[in-house]
Amino acid sequence: SQQGEEDPQALSIQEGENATMNCSYKTSINNLQWYRQNSGRGLVHLILIRSNEREKHSGRLRVTLDTSKKSSSLLITASRAADTASYFCATVLLYSGGGADGLTFGKGTHLIIQP
Amino acid sequence: ETGVTQTPRHLVMGMTNKKSLKCEQHLGHNAMYWYKQSAKKPLELMFVYNFKEQTENNSVPSRFSPECPNSSHLFLHLHTLQPEDSALYLCASSPRTSGIETQYFGPGTRLLVL
Q1: Cis peptide leading into B107, omega within 30 of 0?
Q2: Which residues 71-90 of A have a C-beta within 8 angstroms of B?
């Protein structure tokens, strides 16, 4: 079942503006991760935020996590044309017995940066 | 550039064909994954392998058969597929287990079933 759900589904902004994407999830998580996918390619990990963290920064990226609302946001500041991609949040499923964990993804936000 | 490679990058097959997708990771990881990405649907986890042992089969039809001969290689054997199986198949790896793991994805195999 779908765990993460991004909002908006699509976002178009001008280069230089900030882009904000939101993610909501349903069940308790260990951590939440954001990935980027350029058209038809593999996913690239951007940032991971643990359930006991509220905010994290990496370069032009800022991620927040509100576990009480089961939501996260990804902010990209000073956007560039190269930021055009789909962005996904993913949460970690926990299997019994300590087995490897698969990620549960949302449908993603398609971000277009207009030059 | 990631340390996870997938071959082939594109594949067209008929419903009666048998083909295999290959994934190789050069990162020394112990866990490997297959995901399916269809148009307008979220990525779906298909299979999880941890130290070569399958730990998850996410209700995938038997026409998809995974194989993990060692921690560096993962295969997805395909037979008698349906057109709705057309999708991007992504392989990923992670160091190991237990929750706090970034996954590293390959570029994917774009599969078209005719």
Answers
A1: no
A2: 88
